Here is the input.
Amino acid sequence: MGPLLFLPLLSGFLYALSSLFLKRGFQEGVGFTRVLFLSNIAMGLLISVMIPFQSEPIHWELIYLPMIAAVFFFLGQTFTFVAIRVGDVSVVTPTMGTKVIFVAILASIFFGYEMSLVGWLAVLLAGVAVSLLGLTRGSVGGRKAVLAAIGWAALSALFFATCDNLVSAWSARFGRPAFVVVLFGTVALLSFLLIPFFSAPLRMVTRKAWPWVLWGCTLLGVQASLLAIALTYEDPTVANTLYSSRGLWAVIMVSTIGVWFGNREGELPRWILVARLGGSLLILLAIYLMLFVAGVE
Here is the structure.
């Protein structure tokens, strides 16, 4: 197991934590479009720290490659925020784990990746885990909110899976880590198109809401950067199987520290939280199979 494969695990933890901050920001009245804008800007700024690490030549004639990947990331990010706004964190975050399935399928069909039978079993387990985590009734917002959140999260996962495969396939051609710098820089620029859709100007965000929004956006930016770095060097299916651990962290966090964020998911019937925890443990099994049985190095 290469050291870079620890980055998706750390990213999964930070993603779950950022979701709690962002959910609280929504509860404080900050529209999802403004939060989306701020998080994308944060990603563009944070990833710039990678510029000094660029040692290989950059093929600027291929700059359209990271820009194409950026469009898919932007779409994935947008639908993620829609899902977080309408649904529970302990449903949205695990459902985003479907990305590992989309990544595996797209990588096999379009990018020539080959995976062992055990590797596919790990992907299948991750899919079953997502079903167990997301398709449980009793959400704070009701069954309709659960289904809506699952739908938006799954669509987001598809866009992110496409982006991840493009990063893995194209970054070496353009130049690492310049690829991810251009990618997130493009996402930041695209975000200015969101300004006309703000429900209110940024200056109208209350002083009480700003800490939740800023912490959420910063953590989201850090985790996205770490995952993107891992994807430039590692197999996208393996990285995303590890990244799906965010589902486990989401369930644990809403059941323990969620109350600190004003999150009510811990009030759900105990059997629902247990079911979601069971699904998260299946994700851990999938990670174990991918790393220690499928022979990932």
User: Anything to note?
Assistant: The CA atoms of residues 111 and 169 lie 7 Å apart. The longest helix spans residues 143-174. Residues 3-293 form one domain.
